[in-house]
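Example (one chain per record):
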Amino acid sequence: MIDPDKGFSFHPHAEMEITTIVLEGELTHQDNMGNSGTLRNEDMRCITTGTGIEHSEFNRGRKPLRLYQI
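Predicted structure:
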């Protein structure tokens, strides 16, 4: 669970796939490739990091965020 206005500042990943499913709330994503967006209940996103990206993820909503990420 991620509380409102909490999250993870820019950090790197490389050579992996990241799958995120929002169970409740909303997740705002931004990366160094110019991509950004907000996932809401039951939305899913897959990221292929390739040789490397940096991204941040925050709960900008007013309710706690529950998600599943592998």
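Caption: Residues 7-69 form a domain with the Jelly Rolls fold (CATH 2.60.120.10).
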